[in-house]
């Protein structure tokens, strides 16, 4: 019980935005995971790129702020991974990333 009380009153506990901000941001990760089943034509390249930049900036913020916010760092690292995958699906769907075929070596 003492450890729970210590967590409850800690600088990164549930009485602070250090806790609830990252919890709310897990919605971005959940939405990205849900969108993996949708066709690439429905992905917005601009929005996905913006989400990649957003998560990269907030990963740095989570690392630099004192006390370090590991929950926020984990959340944005997960979102960065999901959004980069979505961005690669979008790029393949637009033809930017095509499969490279090896040409036979001429002799």
Number of strands: 0
Low-confidence stretches: none
Summarize the main sheet.
Answer: none
- One letter per element, helices H and strands E, the order comes to HHHH
Over all CA atoms, what is the radius of gyration? 19 Å
**Morphology call:** elongated
State the helical fraction.
55-70%
Q: Give the overall pLDDT as a whole number.
A: 90
Span from first to last CA? Answer: 76 Å
Structure description:
This protein is mainly alpha-helical and 107 residues long. The protein has a domain at 25-94. The chain is built from four helices and no strands. The protein has helices at 2-8, 17-34, 45-64, 70-94. Helix 2 packs parallel to helix 4 (70-94) and helix 3 runs antiparallel to helix 4 (70-94). The N and C termini lie far apart (76 Å). Its main location: mitochondrion.
